[in-house]
Amino acid sequence: MTTAQDPIGTPGTPWGDAERALWRSRQSRRRSYADDVLAAIDRLRGRFDVFEYGQLEYAPDGYPLLAIRSRDWDDALPCVLVTGGVHGYETSGVHGALLFADRHGADYAGKANLLVAPCVSPWAYERIHRWNPDAIDPNRSFHADSPARESAALMQLVEPLRGRFLVHVDLHETTDSDESEFRPALAARDGQPYEPGEIPDGFYLVDDSANPQRAFQQAVIDAVAKVTHIAPADADGRIIGSPVVAPGVIEYDVGRLGLCAGITGARYTTTTEVYPDSPRATPEQCNAAQIAAVCAAIDFALAHGGDAGKG
């Protein structure tokens, strides 16, 4: 695992336009959004409403942003948002969202309105990266006047329904490349020293410290534990530097940090973190963990949530 600072730029000096351009020139397409995501969405058109909520133009490429919505949408029902691929490199988030819609979307007909944005960051999906082409992390950019077009488009999609969401599940991964590639690049971009961290072996969740929902998070952990292992705390009782507040659960102030999980105002929100590099987990298990998390989250919220919005 590489622990040296990213070689782009001058140590101690934040990147400017030249450094960002150099970084962008080193990124290459490694997989196809059209083949992996758009084709999978096309197969769902017979059962769901599919619509474009934005278009990203990153010359020479263009990316339609597609969402999947319950065909039997009922304004009297609570709304559920499932998001994947906010960080494009986090593969099971994208495929977990698509597989959830395919395999379990019909389970919630007449119970909830589903809105699924399976790949928020298609440019990064193709390049297996965390950032967008401007070297911006979309998952720190969900705020007013967002510099990330991916984040702004998703917020515009969600805004008319704010206050009506009961649950939002944002699907992510924590990978070895977070330490070998992305955190060193972040330090270089911001002109900061790189301080090595520790990648947890297993699945965990991020709760909202401004709206903690312990029983909800526990229900999700219990469901996922049947599919894959839950990350233990480290020797200091932490996961990725944050105190463990319950088995497999840490907290962030998601709104203050501009995280995707803060965009809906839902009563029940969680961010999943799958560990795909574990020798104890296969890609199929990672997808299954995401699906189990979404189903458990919706089931708990419908059983306990009552009206939408924070209680």
From TrEMBL:
Alphabetical list of SUPFAM superfamilies matching this protein? Zn-dependent exopeptidases
Catalytic center residues: 273 (proton donor/acceptor)
Q: Which Gene3D superfamilies match?
A: Zn peptidases
Residue span, Peptidase M14 domain: 29-301
CDD domains for the chain: M14_REP34-like
- Which family does the record assign? Belongs to the peptidase M14 family.
- What protein is this chain from? M14 family metallocarboxypeptidase
